[in-house]
Design a protein that fits this description.
The complex is a heterodimer of chains A (247) and B (258). Chain A is an alpha/beta fold and 247 residues long. Chain A is built from ten helices and ten strands. Chain A has helices at 49-56, 79-85, 93-96, 102-112, 117-130, 146-158, 176-188, 200-206, 224-227, 231-236, and strands at residues 8-18, 24-34, 38-42, 64-69, 72-73, 86-89, 164-168, 192-197, 209-214, 217-223. With 258 residues, chain B is mostly helical. In chain B, 24% of the residues are buried. Classes of the chains: A alpha/beta (247), B mainly alpha (258). Chain A binds chain B through residues 57, 59, 80, 83-84, 87-88, 90, 92, 94-96, 98-101, 104, 107-109, 111-114, 117, 120-121, 138, 140, 142, 156-157, 160, and chain B through 12, 15-16, 18-19, 21, 138-140, 164, 167-168, 171, 209, 212-213, 215-223, 225, 227-230. The complex binds adenosine-5'-diphosphate (ADP) and magnesium ion. Magnesium ion is lined by residues 49-50, 168-169 of chain A.
Chain lengths: 247, 258
């Protein structure tokens, strides 16, 4: 929900996390994000990108350090506040869509907030409009194509009007046309966006800032144009230059 | 197509039916649910020798299939697992009740034969009524109706999730089987030695997926209560079940059909 919180929306200080003892996934992460930014979180497979995102929405509370979302510390007591401010688009759209029709699924979040029927309806219409799938609203979720499912799951999050939107590997399993469409739509969304991916071309097209993760640390954090064109840096951390920069 | 794929297909076909824009689908789910339940109660409550009014009661399933544009053949096919159960409940009646109650031409009819027939009809009608309900009402709507009836929210959620997870588990099973078969093309079915691992895989993956679904619900503010949008009640939503119930009551209590 937009509460008019501006400026610093996300604050991560000395964040460390391990699923199993002595298998540190994240190690002393420090990171601040502001309203309106679009940030790509990149890193090789299994490096902890998804883990970091899940910590932000409070799906795992056993972390060390400071984690603040829109001024709320991520802990059990604040979970509802935190989740009002931050929306998570799962990598696997099938996990996101569980009601029969798209409109019901998109309405699910706003309804849980106890909004009036009119307000819910307005949210649904707007969210579908933002991802350009208004004509699919009555459609059955199981009948959608991969690209449509992705857009529908983004709509379920937009309907909650979060200040921060997290997307885990959104471009995975999309064909070129759907991928292009998604880039256009993401660029129209003005909230703070965190996008994880190892599709660096996608990050280049959607994010102004890039954060490179490896070995539990933030290796680099800066303008995408700098980081994504630094071949030596990327190769050292298991990635490759975006295709369009390769000779 | 393997048998899992067939089942997924079946599920999809049923969902297709539920998503049609047909007036019967648009009726308020509470009315349809109550109507189906009361129909079954009334049918079951008929005296075991009352054949004629019971046959008249078939007007409801007849109407449902014809007006609802449902295929009778498909309906029977989908209900094939329960049908034998309800049809054979009365199978031993002829052996117990040998009193002759009437004649068809020159053949004497015993009470047992008659009651076997009525028990079968009752079971058959009930199955058809349930099918008409689920073919025209989505699981979300049925849960919504159950909530209006003050079914505890936990139960409504459980019903919804079982339905949802059932689909997920079927799809996971399908993926695993396909992956297996692609790499064992000359094999008929699955080698018994692989079963253990595959089933283990299947449970783990299904649990993973189910957990993701649940997490995604939590992240969208789900607190255990289920608020589906209120459906507007129209005149037809009330008239449709009431007219039927009046008709049922007439058949059951007027004595007009014996
Ligand atoms: N639920 C879990 N339990 C234990 N280990 C996990 C779990 N989820 C992920 N991991 C491990 O944590 C590491 C980071 O995983 P993940 O965050 O998914 O990486 P990425 O998203 O960057 O590919 C991996 O080594 C992975 O095996
Ligand atoms: Mg990941």
């Amino acid at each position: 929900m937009h509460t008019g919180v501006s400026g610093e929306l996300l604050k991560i200080e000395h964040l460390s996390f391990a699923y199993e003892k002595d298998e540190q996934v994240l190690n002393d992460i420090n990171f601040v994000a502001h309203d309106g930014e679009s940030i790509g979180i990149i890193g090789a497979n299994g490096i902890g990108k998804s883990t970091l995102m899940k910590l932000l929405v409070g799906l795992n509370l056993n972390y060390k350090g400071t984690l603040e979302v829109a001024g709320h510390s991520v802990n059990k007591k604040n979970l509802n506040h935190v989740r009002e401010h931050i929306g998570y688009v799962f990598q696997d759209s099938d996990s996101q869509l569980f009601l029969s029709t798209i409109e019901d699924d998109v309405a699910f979040g706003p309804q849980n907030y106890g909004l009036s029927d009119e307000e819910v309806e307005k949210r649904v219409a707007e969210a579908l409009e933002k991802v350009h799938i208004t004509e699919l609203r009555k459609k059955h979720t199981y009948k959608l194509s991969g690209g449509e499912k992705k857009l529908a799951s983004i709509a379920t999050i937009l309907a909650m009007e979060p200040d921060i939107i997290i997307m885990d590997e959104p471009s995975i399993a999309l064909d070129p046309r759907n991928r292009k469409n998604l880039i256009k739509i993401l660029n129209e969304i003005k909230s703070l966006k965190l996008i994880t991916s190892h599709d660096l071309d996608f990050i280049m097209d959607t994010c102004e800032r890039t954060v490179l993760l490896d070995d539990g640390h933030i290796i680099a954090d800066g303008p995408s144009t700098d980081i994504l064109s630094n071949e030596a840096l990327l190769t050292r951390h298991g990635l490759e230059l975006p295709l369009r920069l390769q000779k | 197509m393997n048998s899992i794929e067939k089942n997924i297909n079946e599920l999809n076909k049923l969902q297709n039916l539920q998503q049609r824009s047909h007036w019967m689908n648009e009726l308020h789910p509470l009315g349809k649910l109550l109507l189906s339940v009361l129909y079954i109660f009334i049918v079951v409550s008929f005296d075991k020798y009352k054949v004629v009014p019971l046959i008249v009661m078939s007007v409801y399933p007849f109407f449902g299939f014809i007006a609802g544009e449902l295929s009778f053949k498909e309906g029977i096919y989908r209900m094939r697992l329960i049908l034998p159960l309800v049809l054979f409940v009365g199978i031993f009646n002829p052996f117990f009740d040998k009193q002759i109650v009437g004649m068809i031409g020159s053949v004497p009819v015993t009470g047992g034969v008659l009651s076997m027939f009525t028990v079968m009809l009752k079971g058959f009608y009930s199955v058809l009524a349930v099918y008409i309900l689920i073919a025209t009402t989505s699981i979300d709507d049925i849960c919504y109706a159950l909530r209006i009836l003050h079914l505890p929210k936990v139960l409504a959620i459980v019903i919804l999730l079982i339905y949802r997870y059932f689909g997920i588990m079927a799809i996971e099973a399908d993926r695993i089987m396909t992956a297996y078969k692609l790499r064992a093309p000359h094999q008929n079915g699955i080698h018994y030695k692989a079963w253990g691992t595959l089933v283990g895989q299947w449970l783990l993956r299904s649990m993973d997926r189910a957990e993701n679904v649940y997490e995604s619900m939590l992240l969208r503010g789900f607190t255990g209560d289920f608020r589906i949008r209120k459906k507007k009640v129209r005149i037809a939503d009330i008239l449709y079940p009431i007219i039927w119930l009046l008709a049922f009551a007439f058949v059951r209590y007027s004595g007009f059909f014996g």
